[in-house]
Amino acid sequence: MINKNKLSNIDGAEISWFAPLCDGDDDFLGNRNPLYKSSWENTSSIVKIADKLGFKNVLCPSSYQVGQDPLSFVAGMASLTENINFLVAIRCGELHPPMLARTIASLDHMLKGRLTINIISSNLPGMDLSSKERYARSREVIQILKQSWSQDQIKFKGNYYQLDLTSRPVKPYQQNGGPLLYFGGYSPDGVDLCAEFCDVYLMWPETESKLKGLMDTMTLKASNYNRTVKFGLRVHVIVRETEQEARDYADQLISKLDLEKGTDIRNRAQDAASLGVSRQSKLREESDGKYYVEPNLWTGIGLARSGCGAAIVGSPDQVVAKIERYIEMGINSFIFSGYPHEKECEIFAKLVLPRLKTVSLPEVFGRMPKNIPNSPLANGPRK
Q: 202 forms bridges with which residues in the sheet?
């Protein structure tokens, strides 16, 4: 069972890397170097290195326009990794919920519990639902998943789905509630969805004061449901032996960028018009002439990518201090990335990772069984 005291006082943080499945890797931003395509060969290499270097989790994002399907990718990586968890992005509505539950259960067993879920509520390809409609659909999908993981029968009557099914075929490997649900969103409907159902609220970079505001709002919302939500931060990182070297590398990243090309790249993403992306644009507008919005937080990344648009930039001491400051604020999960991803993964692991106390959130939440579970796909009886 979950130790609530342990959950409220997490000693350390989950340190994750990023798998650039959606064609988001490069040596220079906007350069579109074919060597950094989101091929299986490139992205699987990054994840295998992150696994060997000790990262606790890896985010596998989803996009229709470019890149690989995250569920297929994670299935392929199951036997090629040993310790790292996979945070796989699920776009609610893409799969019929019982079949989604079966897919998640299959992956969870293949990975022996090394699975977490990133809930996404953006539009499906070719569709244009309102924000309220999309979050209403996601709310139903999540409730069906939770029923399938905690009840013997899925009984659900909603506007989008009506189901009465046994949940036996979709039982996951993880116990006490199944895989953790991570969620990122800024609209009132999205915040309320996370507060009621999800475990980790993922934020994109903001100034520390704005991050605190987001966290205070979520904490209050979750308390209305008698729940506690943990916090995560998705942010890029550039760390070098000295601050000047790190800042020089940041400048180098955008040295070949054509701003019109960067705008085109940003606008390709399905979430290009979202509230979260607009907040990242505003953050960049508030920065100085070198794109720094506060000490060691650089917003130049957002010139050529949608979504997370800022990086922690500095020496190892400065980067560790910034991360520890975030941890003191109550952030217990970090998803880092850098350009190019494989090289920056190795640099971060050398200069920063050994100085951080790391944890696995599925273990902290009590989801990982001590023994092989009695699920139908594991040690359960055949019927």
A: 232
Spatial neighbors of 204 by CB under 8 A, at least 6 apart, are 184, 233, 234, 235, 276, 279, 280, 307, 308, 309, 310
Q: What is the DSSP string of 16-53?
A: EEE--TTS---SSTT---GGG---HHHHHHHHHHHHHH
Two tokens at 219?
Answer: 């904490």
Among 38, 60, 63, residue whose Cα is nearest residue 125: 63
CA distances from 349 to 12, 205, 337 (A): 16, 21, 11
User: What does the pLDDT average to over 83-112?
Assistant: 96
Tokens of residue 220, six digits: 């209050």
Tell me: domain 4-238+330-364, CATH 3.50.50.60, correct? no
Predicted TM-score (pTM) above 0.90: yes
Specify the residue for token string 């036996």: 168
Residue whose structure tokens are 């809930």:
119
CA distances from 280 to 186, 301, 307 (A): 12, 10, 7
Q: Is the dihedral of CA 171, 176, 180, 185 positive or negative?
A: positive
Pull the structure tokens for residue 112. Answer: 């022996």
Residues forming a β-bridge with 155: 164
Q: How far apart are CA 91 and CA 73, in angstroms?
A: 15
* Domains of the chain by residue range: 4-238+330-364
Judge whether residue 112 has pLDDT over 70.
Answer: yes
Please check the confidence at residue 181 and state whether its pLDDT lies above 70: yes
CA distances from 164 to 155, 171, 227, 291, 383 (A): 5, 16, 27, 54, 20
Helix (H) or strand (E) holding 6, with range, is helix 4-8
pLDDT at 267: 58
Mean pLDDT score, 221-240: 97
| Residue 28 structure tokens | 């220079």
Q: What is the DSSP code (8-state) at residue 176?
A: S
| Block residue for tokens 């990243």 | 253
Residues 6+ apart with CB under 8 A from 375: 105, 109, 171, 172, 173
| Segment holding 185, helix H or strand E | none
Neighbours of 134 (CB within 10 A): 25
What is the average per-residue pLDDT within 265-285? 68
Closest CA to 179 of 372, 370, 365, 379: 365
The pLDDT of residue 342 is above 60: yes
